[in-house]
Specification:
By secondary structure, the chain is mainly beta. Helix content is about 0%, strand content about 25%. It has strands at about 5-10, 30-35, 40-45, 60-65, 75, 105-110, 125, 130, 145-150, 155.
């Protein structure tokens, strides 16, 4: 069964867009609410059978609709944002016209051990003047690094 998500800018007070302003007759168990309040965002789910006392003194908050009589509460929850530890894209990535910003790091050149895979970024300011004869193996297939040579770097192909 589909549920509705409400966007609110107050928890209480009964004014339009206050969480408690939505009547129990229009709400269904599982409805969601997002409340933006003083720079903080709160998430709520509605339970039509809940009878907990209303409280905003401590988390999780519980809000009763203004027309509450025998049951029905909004209960604060924390959305699970990190549940999938191995997300798969499964298709082309559409960035919706936004850029993907990449991390920037600095690595000193070294003839055989330039630590480009240990860098904390994938766009690397490659410093030094050592002649590069080899790079360590990547930590996984498909990994890429973009080197921006800060000096006159020399790369010698060994194969």
């Amino acid at each position: 069964m589909p549920y509705t998500t409400y966007n609110c800018d107050a928890l209480q007070g009964g004014a339009a867009r206050a969480l408690d302003s939505y009547g129990v007759a229009t709400l269904t168990t599982g409805d969601r609410a997002i409340v933006a309040l003083s720079g903080t965002v709160y998430y709520f789910v509605y339970d039509s059978t809940a009878t907990a006392a209303e409280t905003v003194a401590a988390h999780p908050y519980v809000i009763r609709p203004d027309d509450y009589s025998a049951g029905g509460n909004w209960e604060e929850y924390t959305p699970e944002l990190a549940g999938d530890t191995s997300p798969q894209l499964g298709g082309l990535l559409d960035t919706n016209a936004f850029a993907i910003d990449e991390s920037y790091a600095t690595v000193a050149s070294h003839a055989t051990t330039s630590a480009i895979w240990a860098a904390l970024g994938n766009v690397i300011n490659f410093t030094g003047t050592e002649t590069i004869t080899d790079f360590p193996a990547a930590n996984r297939a498909g990994a890429q690094r973009f080197l921006i040579c800060a000096a006159a770097c020399v790369f010698t192909h060994a194969g």
